[in-house]
User: Which sequence fits this backbone?
């Protein structure tokens, strides 16, 4: 039973009527600053709808598997695997919206589910958050590519987040390098960047704190952290490498929704010019998927459609989504566990390579291979069974998988350790 | 693994943002993060605790049960899912602009005539002391409050006409029965949260001296003696819009349970009344949902938030406005300078000179601003003098210019003109000022 009561302060009778509203429940993992902006704007344009936001961080999938999908009408998130998994389970209904003015892809990056169950609402790019003042002070050029970060001049000036321990975007960013440069070359690149970097463990300081404070000058990052901090006044700049890798966020309508029309209005709002332009707000700074709105972008704002003309994106998250946990395990074994040793050995190696004919010397090239080799090849890394046993959920719930994963890790740890020892022995021998 | 050690200058970023040598609690930051700078001259452990508190303050909480147990506990009944919802960028919330808009950074306190055993407001037996508009799935929210405004024109002595908007509230969709005809209710927007550590470090003795000092200037501010639940004794309140909370820790824990339905060791029970059965049966997360370490972290964060620096203090117009501010009596309550005393929980707060423009006392503000909801010794016409520091930043940081406890004033001039009660003489003097001096006073406020 519902009651209505008119209560008036001293200032006379209120004659207005508050109309009954339809409640639309949206599940997301976006921060409050972002959500509140869209919530307010949507409700302003749709006063008959009361938007109720539910927030889940790591368990949106089981939440959406609850009876009646937990009462959720719309799911808006950057967690692509949830959209894929739930699509297989029949949890979405087709969007069936007018997509005029919306691209289906940017380069290799799809912006829509081929079957029409979900679509991207915005994208975010990977690149480098830099402190230009810091770089000037240290006489360092702005990096323009991931390859640039391997330059010995950047040694000690980079903060590299550890993918298994810091931020959901980091595994994707690391994997985008592996996909763009190839499995072996990508790991070699990462090994050399890590040698130049301080590795960022879990901690309460944001990447933008560390770079903004001048603790370090460069941090590989997803763009909106740095771009938003910059728009709010931090001394930061976001640098995009040529051929940017992107992480899209998607939106879907729950199959079980009782509010399909309202849900479609919300989806349409998110993709409308009004909704897309909200992404330019200093507290958001994500990249719209409606190309036309870039005509009104703030000064200096990155335009992925324009950038794609000369350097189309090659990274497609769909291809490698299953191997992220495997990537994380390898990052730990290859780079984190040997970080201090690796930094010392890389310094020695670079000294040798800088000598006349150093890079052409087969023995020196062998040492480089020892420091950059990855224990499994790209084909093995694409093996679904191998990928699955490393997944956090699988390891936690399947004892056999955990045993297999541990065995593989032990074998790889031994192999990598032997390589480092051999590299160390050869370098010591050389320097004698 | 090598750990990146945070430099003491963390979060200060640039020289521009470095704290002034003469007052390290003032952030020289002209950005939209001016309310979010952390005093950093503390040890690394304390700084990390404050940074953890920052994350918790910005965190959107989840409904239990949840895998993310450390952030689970929202509801069963609540207003918003994050501290940040009502204190965007650590600044001010805002009211709805029309009856169709929901309260997104505003809430409504409730009570019945009478007092609780400690002298505080008597909770409504069903709805408690605050209307929680939202509920977790399966638990109906308590109801909705809409606001509309009636314009009332005020003509100043020089002929200028200014329209003030009078808020009119309507409760609807009350899911747990009607509210009593004599219900007391008090709508409030979220106030800024920086500088609270400094205010906490002002001693009770100083507050009492301020009351005496005010009497000598013709105002009758008095402290609100409230119930200190931690120490189980009465104490001078200083937090909350009616100075109805004694300590910052209690203010934080009260907001977690009241606004978000998150229990803590200070509030171990969920906010469900006897008749709210679905609420009672709804699962909780771990108990308490906000662990003591998390409460300490948020406390540390809020205590360490710096205050934004004044701007344009050398501007002659601003200086004229400042003189006028004192001359017409505003500074009798909005006291420009306070000093903190020894503050053992965080010695860095001790002996600081601050410019909050408050006396932390209750004043009769007249019928126009009265909410008619007493709170301990605060009458229905009394409010604590709100600090004015940072008020000139609101438009830039919070992207609005709504002021006063319920956001009814659309700009600072309207806010001044709403003053009544003890502040009526000052308000009249403001109204009688030549337009240039009125504008100078506003420019001064904008410089804070």
Assistant:
């Amino acid at each position: 039973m519902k009651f209505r009561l008119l209560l008036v302060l001293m200032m006379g009778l209120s004659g207005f009527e508050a109309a009954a509203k339809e409640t639309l429940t949206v599940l997301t993992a976006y921060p409050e600053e972002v959500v509140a902006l869209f919530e307010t704007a949507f409700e302003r344009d749709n006063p008959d709808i009361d938007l109720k936001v539910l927030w889940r961080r790591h368990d949106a999938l089981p939440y959406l598997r609850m009876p009646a999908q937990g009462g959720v009408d719309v799911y808006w998130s950057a967690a692509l695997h949830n959209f894929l998994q739930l699509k297989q389970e029949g949890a979405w209904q087709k969007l069936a919206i007018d997509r005029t003015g919306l691209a289906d892809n940017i380069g290799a990056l799809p912006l829509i589910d081929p079957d029409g169950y979900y679509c991207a609402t915005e994208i975010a790019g990977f690149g480098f958050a830099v402190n230009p003042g810091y770089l000037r002070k240290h006489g360092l050029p702005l990096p323009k590519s991931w390859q640039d970060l391997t330059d010995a001049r950047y040694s000690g000036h980079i903060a590299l987040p550890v993918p298994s321990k810091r931020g959901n975007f980091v595994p994707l960013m690391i994997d985008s390098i592996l996909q763009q440069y190839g499995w072996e070359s990508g790991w070699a690149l990462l090994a050399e960047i890590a040698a130049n970097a301080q590795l960022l463990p879990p901690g309460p300081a944001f990447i933008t704190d560390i770079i903004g404070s001048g603790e370090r000058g460069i941090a590989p990052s997803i763009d909106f952290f740095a771009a938003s901090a910059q728009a709010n006044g931090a001394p930061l700049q976001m640098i995009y490498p040529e051929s940017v890798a992107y992480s899209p966020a998607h939106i879907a309508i729950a199959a079980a929704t009782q509010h399909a029309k309202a849900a479609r209005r919300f989806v349409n709002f998110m993709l409308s010019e009004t909704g897309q332009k909200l992404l330019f707000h200093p507290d958001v700074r994500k990249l719209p998927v409606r190309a036309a709105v870039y005509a009104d972008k703030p000064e200096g704002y990155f335009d992925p459609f324009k950038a794609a003309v000369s350097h189309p994106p090659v990274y497609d998250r769909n291809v490698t989504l299953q191997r992220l946990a495997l990537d994380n395990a390898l990052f730990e074994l290859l780079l984190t566990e040997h970080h201090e040793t690796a930094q010392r050995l890389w310094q020695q190696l670079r000294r040798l390579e800088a000598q006349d004919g150093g890079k052409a010397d087969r023995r020196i090239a062998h040492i480089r291979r020892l420091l950059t080799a990855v224990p499994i090849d790209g084909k093995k890394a694409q093996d679904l069974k191998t990928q699955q046993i490393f997944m956090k959920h699988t390891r936690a719930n399947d004892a056999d998988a955990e045993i297999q994963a541990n065995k593989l890790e032990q074998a790889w740890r031994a192999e990598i350790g032997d390589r480092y020892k051999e590299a160390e022995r050869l370098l010591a021998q050389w320097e004698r | 693994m090598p750990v990146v050690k945070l430099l003491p200058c963390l979060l200060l970023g640039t020289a521009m943002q470095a704290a002034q040598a003469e007052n390290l609690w003032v952030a020289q930051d002209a950005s939209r993060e001016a309310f979010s700078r952390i005093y950093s001259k503390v040890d690394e452990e304390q700084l990390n605790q404050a940074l953890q508190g920052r994350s918790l303050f910005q965190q959107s909480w989840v409904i239990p049960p949840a895998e993310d147990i450390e952030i689970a506990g929202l509801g069963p009944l609540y207003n918003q899912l994050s501290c940040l919802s009502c204190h965007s960028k650590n600044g001010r919330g805002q009211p709805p602009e029309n009856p169709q808009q929901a309260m997104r950074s505003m809430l409504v306190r409730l009570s019945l005539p009478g007092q609780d055993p400690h002298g505080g407001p008597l909770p409504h037996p069903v709805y408690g002391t605050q209307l929680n508009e939202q509920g977790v799935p399966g638990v109906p929210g308590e109801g909705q409050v809409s606001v509309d405004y009636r314009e009332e024109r005020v003509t100043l002595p020089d002929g200028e006409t200014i329209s003030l908007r009078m808020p009119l509230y309507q409760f609807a969709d009350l899911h747990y029965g009607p509210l009593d005809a004599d219900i007391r209710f008090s709508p409030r927007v979220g106030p800024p949260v920086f500088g609270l550590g400094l205010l906490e470090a002002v001693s009770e003795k100083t507050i009492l001296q301020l009351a005496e000092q005010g009497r000598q200037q013709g105002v009758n501010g008095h402290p609100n003696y409230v119930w200190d639940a931690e120490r189980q004794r009465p104490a001078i309140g200083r937090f909350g819009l009616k100075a109805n909370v004694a300590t910052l820790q209690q203010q934080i824990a009260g907001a977690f349970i009241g606004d978000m339905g998150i229990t803590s060791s200070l509030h171990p029970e969920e906010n469900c009344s006897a008749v709210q059965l679905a609420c009672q049966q709804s699962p909780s997360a771990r108990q308490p949902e906000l662990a003591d370490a998390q409460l300490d972290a948020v406390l540390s964060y809020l205590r360490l938030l710096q205050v934004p620096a004044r701007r344009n203090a050398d501007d002659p117009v601003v200086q004229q406005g400042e003189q006028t501010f004192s001359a017409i009596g505003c500074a009798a309550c909005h006291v420009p300078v306070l000093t903190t005393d020894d503050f053992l929980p965080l010695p860095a707060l001790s002996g600081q000179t601050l410019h909050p423009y408050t006396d932390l006392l209750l004043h009769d503000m007249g019928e126009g601003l009265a909410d008619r909801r007493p709170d301990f010794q605060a009458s229905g016409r009394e409010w604590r003098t709100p600090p004015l520091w940072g008020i000139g930043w609101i438009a830039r940081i919070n992207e609005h210019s709504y002021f006063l406890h319920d956001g009814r004033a659309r700009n600072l001039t309207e806010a001044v003109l709403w003053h009544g009660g003890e502040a009526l003489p000052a308000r009249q003097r403001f109204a009688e000022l030549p337009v240039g001096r009125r504008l100078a006073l506003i420019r001064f406020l904008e410089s804070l």
In short: The two ends of chain B are 45 Å apart (CA to CA). Chain B has a mean pLDDT of 94. The first strand of chain B starts at residue 26 and ends at 27.
